[in-house]
Design a protein that fits this description.
Elements (H helix, E strand, L loop, with lengths): L3 E3 L2 E3 L9 E5 L6 E5 L1 H27 L4 H25 L9 H4 L6 E5 L5 H6 L1 H11 L3 E5 L4 E5 L9 H14 L3 H4 L1 H4 L4 E6 H4 L5 H11 L4 H10 L2 E5 L2 E6 L1 H16 L3 H18 L1
Antiparallel strand pairs: 1-2, 3-4, 5-7, 6-7, 8-10, 9-10
Amino acid sequence: PRGHLVDGQTEPFPPPSSFKFCFKFKPSHTIFNFVAEQNTMAVAMQEDNNQSSSETHMEFSSNATTIDSSVVQSRIRQSVSLQQQDAEMDVEDSQPIFPKLSAAQAAGNKIEYRRVRCPNHRYTPLREHWEQMLTPLVEYLKLQVRFNTRTRSVEMKTSHHTVDVGALQKGADFVSAFMMGFEVQDAVALLRMDDLYVESFQVTDVKLLKGDHLSRAVGRIAGQDGKTRFAIENATRTRIVIADQRVHMLGSYANLRVARNAICDLILGAPPGKVYNNMRNVAKRMNERY
């Protein structure tokens, strides 16, 4: 029986809020055994939680039934307006997309011209390779080209078919390289690649030479049957043209620097064997790099 002993009589014992105790009374021995029933406590706490959650759910449901329809409509309108504001901000933040301009549109619908004069010693090669030069200029760059026999110059101009803005300058560089003495196959590389350049200098710019000394310096650059020039070209992957006292080089910036240093050493009087050895080392390093 639940209770406690007061003056030899049992009276009801109020259970505490957290624990419930079971008392076992033995008349022969006035001993009370207190046993804590934790499982009973857990069950009681779970029942209390279930009851409180059901009460709150009933309160929420009763409150939900009393929501005004005007409040719901105002919240819907507010959400719609927020979505419209987000869409407008996205449109403002997006970058505009413009179509690509043609060469004529970039120049303000004006026709641009270029004229490259033909030297006397390149007139015959130009006449022989004229068709080979027209093919990349007309079909690839979409330029209009003609040869003016009165002024002996190649004239080029843009049209509404020209797409690339730099097509006219590329065509002028291509024709100029051919006029310097490069082959058509080598000059076409200027149209296909953007990191190729043409560099020219005179032998007297490196060292003031006159008479036979100047002739010997040019001979050292060319070599016997062009052997030295070919060695420098193959080692540095450039193209070299020797026209009287002028030297023209075609290639990338780094390769032009190596070839220029080798030619300057030859002009200053370095023996060809030493230049060959340097070119061999340069070619070895370039092959390892690529």
